[in-house]
Structure formats: C-alpha cells, structure tokens
Amino acid sequence: MKKTDNKTPITRIQKQKRLVILEAALEVFSKNGFRGSTLDQIALQAGISKPNILYYYASKQEMHKELIERLMDKWLAPLEEMNAKGDPIAEISAYIKRKLEMARDYPRQSRLFNNEILQGAPHIIDLLNGELKVLVDEKAKVIANWMKQGRLTKTDPYHLIFSIWATTQHYADFDVQICAVLGNDEAIKNRFRKAEKHLYQLFVRSLEVGQ
Amino acid sequence: MKKTDNKTPITRIQKQKRLVILEAALEVFSKNGFRGSTLDQIALQAGISKPNILYYYASKQEMHKELIERLMDKWLAPLEEMNAKGDPIAEISAYIKRKLEMARDYPRQSRLFNNEILQGAPHIIDLLNGELKVLVDEKAKVIANWMKQGRLTKTDPYHLIFSIWATTQHYADFDVQICAVLGNDEAIKNRFRKAEKHLYQLFVRSLEVGQ
DNA sequence: CTAATATTTTTCCAAATGGTCAAAAATTAT
DNA sequence: ATAATTTTTGACCATTTGGAAAAATATTAG
What we know:
The structure is a homodimer. By secondary structure, the first copy, chain A, is an all-alpha fold. Chain A has two domains: 12-58, Arc Repressor Mutant, subunit A (Orthogonal Bundle); 71-207, Tetracycline Repressor, domain 2, CATH 1.10.357.10. Chain A is 77% helix and 0% strand. Chain A is built from eleven helices and no strands. Chain A has helices spanning 12-36, 39-46, 50-56, 60-80, 88-105, 107-118, 125-148, 157-173, 175-182, 185-189, 191-207. At the A-B interface, helix 1, helix 6, helix 7, helix 8 and helix 9 of A face helix 1, helix 6, helix 7, helix 8 and helix 9 of B. Chain B binds a DNA duplex through residues 1-3, 11, 13-14, 17, 38-40, 48-52, 54-55, 58-60.
C-alpha cells in the first residue's frame, strides 16, 4: 500500500482515520477556536497519539483548513436551494426551516464558523468576498423581484437574509444561554419546535402582503 | 501611597493604568477568546511590559473576570429598561434600538460575550441561570401580558427576546461577513441605519395587532 | 535632600505547545 | 514464513506562554 505523498487518502483505513481525527478536531475547534485548541486535546478526543494525528495531517492548520472547506459547502447549500420560481413565502419559510435544522443538527459546525468570523475570518475572507457575496447578491435580487412584484412586503433583502442567518444560527451558537434562560426541561426539549413556529410567524407575518 | 493589597485601585494613576490594560485586554480577548489570547499580545496592545500588566492584575484570569463582570451590567441594562407601563410596540422598538446601538458602539464587548458563550459560558453560567433568567422571566411575563391584553400578536415571548438578541448582536459579531456581503462602501456605511429600519419593520409588522 | 514607597523593567523559569524522528508494532504482499 | 510497507508511538526538541523575583527607576512624604 503506497501513500501517494500527501492529500487524498487511498485506503479505506486512511479515510476512516482521517474522519475520526476531523471529528475530534471539530469538537475541539468549535469550542475553543483555532488558537485556543491544542493538538493534545484533539489527540485525546480522537483517542490516538499526537504524532499519529500528524501522520495523517501535516499540521494543525491543515486540519482546520479541511474542516472549514467541508463546512462552507454545507453552509451555502440552504440558500442555494431557494428557488426564484417558487412561492415567495413558501420559499422563505423553507429556507428558515433548513437553516434551523442545520443549527439543530450541526451546532458544532455553526460554532466553528462563528469562531472563524469572530477572529476576522482569516481563512475564508476571500470566500466571503467571492462565492458568498455572489450567491447572496443573486438571491437578494430574487427577493427584491418578489417585492417589486408585490408578492412580499418591501424591506432590504440583504438585511432580511442577515436576520434569517442571525435568528437561526443563534440556536446553535448561543445554546448554553438559551437553555439557561428557558430553565425548565420541557421548554428546553421543545426549543427547536418552538423556535420554528416563532420564526415562521415573525418572518411570514412581516413579509406577507395585504392582509 | 499605599496599595491596599489587592483589588480596588487607590490612586488616579492606578485607576488609569488598569483602564488602559483592560482596554487592551478587551481588544485581544474579543478577537481570540480567552485561551487564544496571550499576555504578550495584551502587553503589546497596551504599550507596556508583560510584568507590568501582572503588577496591576494578578493573572490573565483576573483581567478576563473583570472584563466579563463589567460587561454583564451593561449587557442587561437595555432589557431592564423595558417598561411594562409603556406602549408595547414602542417599548419593543426602543429595546431593539438600544440593543442595536450597543452592537454598533460596543462590538468588542459583544464579541467577548459571544466568545464566552461559545466556550460554554464557563465564567458566567451561574449568572445566566440566575440574574439573567430572572430578568428574562420577568420581561417575558410583561410581554405575555401585553399579548393577553390583545396589544401584541401572540408569539412565544422567550423566543421573541432571543430573536431580538440574535438579530442585533449579529451586527457586531458577524460584522466581517456583513461587510463582505454588502461589498459596496455606501451600503457598508449605512448598515446600522438600514438594519434599524429593517428590524423595526420585521418586528413591528409581525407584532402589530389588527391591521 | 533623604527615606520610604510605588512603579517598571530585566532576567529568569517551569510548563505547555506544535512538531520531528527513529524505533516498534501491525499489516500486507510474495 | 519472510520481506516490504504502513501505521503507531515514545522520546525528544525548540518555541511560546503564564508568571515569579529582584533589581532599577520614579514618585511622594517628611
């Protein structure tokens, strides 16, 4: 079994080990940020030795880089799915639903992203200025069109998108605070159901036209 | 000039130096989180030597602790001001305005708080479960009352508060992303004005009763 | 001015950290 | 089984880090 220099793993075992390491790295990075995380923590979390980690990833940076890259695809997908030809209210509701599901099912990825942005987005600033901006420009145009057609109440499409990002990701990034404030077990258990209902109402009632 | 052991500075000079250090610490902590920040960075930022910092603050922890403590007072104030006897829509609008102003004027504090929460709120979990929860419970009751009286459209008051937190703090915590997406200088310059307008519309239209 | 006190800096240290290397262990190929 | 190859680890290293100690400097009181 040769190992072709770097990158792309060949054997199934290599693929698996890399995944185990990435999983551990995600756990640690999402909690402590890049600088605040140590290889020892990641090794402990992965259940293997530190040099073994460096056998699969050349450096701490490289692990982080791969995590961020994998994240970004998943992160942009929900907005990409928003369809100009669909019903405006239904499309926006569906977008909110998708984003909220991501906050529920991938909270660590959300926090990893949050951490990256807090630090000034050093690794993804180009992507934000490029791919992300292009995508948002496109969808903002779609939304603006819906508004022009009188199918949505007029508001700033960019800031509307920001509001959706903010409200949905909040349930991943500020989970500790949310659970602390809700206090009671029942409310905590239902927090995502309640959130969905509330966000639908918030956005739909404010965007619905006429009455 | 005696220095009474620890804590509370006596002379004006001590008070000033402590402030300079705190200011530098805020700058660094808010960007890198607690673990990701170093005393050297803070010293550099403050323009004094590392041991001199430790002359005024016994440890890195202590600096962070004081920052967090000072932050929390400021952080709770806007919600405390919400007045049960005022007009519901006006009160909520004013709350949004205050929170948005904090995001604009104190973005580093917002990020410091964000960082703390991301890491699981190790230093303020008691405060979240105590003081914060009590305050939110009280204000949620006020909002629920307004809704019961038919002065606001019914929705979950806790999640309504979460939405306000999320949307306003987003403008501090995700500023890099927002500026990247907005791209154009004019839109960036007006982002807080636009945000205010948009958030008023979002929340007011969705909470206004009747039509 | 002089002594006492407060402040600052230079020097240093032990622990933690990212990473290397060679040897050991496990796996695979023949 | 044996040789070749891959995987894993223990020992090590240079740098960074939080912090201590003490000497040097500045400030204040008398």
